[in-house]
Automatic annotation (TrEMBL):
Keywords: DNA recombination, DNA-binding, Transposition
Superkingdom per UniProt: Bacteria
Protein name: IS5/IS1182 family transposase
GO BP annotations listed: DNA transposition
Role noted for this protein: Involved in the transposition of the insertion sequence IS5.
Domain Transposase InsH N-terminal positions: 13-112
Keyword Iron-sulfur attached: no
Keyword DNA-binding: yes
């Protein structure tokens, strides 16, 4: 016979705490109110002059979007999980509420950020908290890029030609236009084709926290955004990157500015690299490989694929994805430090 209890909810919460709730642990180290304040400054809350139901608090929505990225959920799945999952309800502060943000509310909040040009606000706010915790960028910086795939488009030959010219077939109806990604592009890597976008990232060597990112279409070469993601705040002037970033003129210019360039060399069929260059490549690879751990961490959060359409929404999602990665990494660093003592 199944035992019933008037205190079943409290008993389940107590057991959840005993088993270990990762979201509860995150709350101990992250100031979500401060994150919400930063988001509100970048994208002010809409006016209520016209009346209507007040929007959910920004802090609640920030928590919802971070959960969404931590668990790689669509807007529809996020709505369902908020209705169904105890740990999510407790984390966002809706344990005793009959109302939850539905898929439309979540989409509207994201659009508010995009329209205000505040897609990067959460990533910047999280990085400020990292500094407050003492995790400033140290040990040099590692630069790399990763392809993020988007839903493939079914286009005719003529339609593809128009899209390449940043134009849209006149016969497309508005509903169809909303479903077509005009920004994503094809690229090849190791002989395999990919469709979507690319995120260039800079992570510090000491903590493996992401300090700078740039989102672009997949067809743009990695090297185009190399200088854009350099972090002048890093306490070490070493820059590590793979052979895709070789550019003699740029390396000479950055070296004159005080940067110490550690970029792997690449050979060709007619001019292979020397034994000394091969040894140098291996020394660089041993350290540079740490940024692959960063991209692997983001991949665990679903950071290798998008459900969105367009560069603006891809930029928003990837900034929140990297912010979620940094927060999870922060919790790991804080908890590991506690255990060490």
């Amino acid at each position: 016979m199944i035992k019933t209890s008037l205190f079943a909810d409290q008993e389940r919460e107590a057991k959840l705490n005993k088993l270990g709730d990762a979201l509860r642990v995150m709350e101990q180290h992250v100031d979500f109110a401060a994150l919400a304040d930063e988001v509100d400054r970048a994208a002010p809350r809409p006016s209520r002059e016209r009346g209507g139901r007040p929007p959910f608090p920004t802090e609640l929505m920030v928590r919802v979007l971070l959960i969404q990225q931590l668990f790689n959920l669509s807007d529809e799945q996020m709505e369902f999980q908020l209705l169904d999952r105890l740990s999510f309800q407790r984390f966002v502060g809706l344990r005793s509420s009959s109302q939850i943000p539905d898929r439309t509310t979540i989409w509207t909040f994201k659009e508010r950020l995009i329209q205000a040009g505040a897609s990067e606000s959460i990533f910047e706010a999280v990085n400020r908290q990292l500094s407050k915790h003492g995790y400033i960028a140290r040990g040099g910086q590692m630069v790399d890029a990763s392809i993020v795939q988007a839903p493939k488009q079914s286009l005719s030959k003529n339609e593809k030609a128009l899209v390449k010219e940043n134009a849209m077939p006149i016969e497309w109806k508005p509903a169809k236009r909303r479903q077509k990604d005009m920004d994503a592009r094809w690229t090849k890597k190791h002989g395999k084709s990919y469709f979507g976008y690319k995120v260039s990232a800079n992570a510090d060597k000491r903590y493996k926290l992401v300090r700078k990112i740039k989102v672009s279409t997949a067809s743009e070469h990695d090297t185009l955004h190399f200088e854009e993601v350099l972090d002048p705040a890093n306490t070490n002037r070493n820059i590590l990157a793979d052979k895709g970033y070789v550019d003699g003129e740029r390396e000479e210019r950055l070296s004159k500015q005080g940067w110490r360039m550690h970029i792997q060399r690449k050979g060709s069929k007619d001019k292979p690299i020397s034994a000394a260059q091969e040894r140098r490549n291996k020394r660089i690879a041993k350290t540079r490989a740490r940024i692959e751990h960063v991209f692997a961490g983001m991949a665990q959060l679903g950071g290798k694929a998008l459900r969105t359409i367009g560069l603006a929404r891809a930029t928003l999602q990837l900034n929140w994805k990297v912010a979620a990665y940094n927060l999870r990494r922060l919790v790991y660093l804080k908890e590991a430090r506690v255990e060490a003592f």
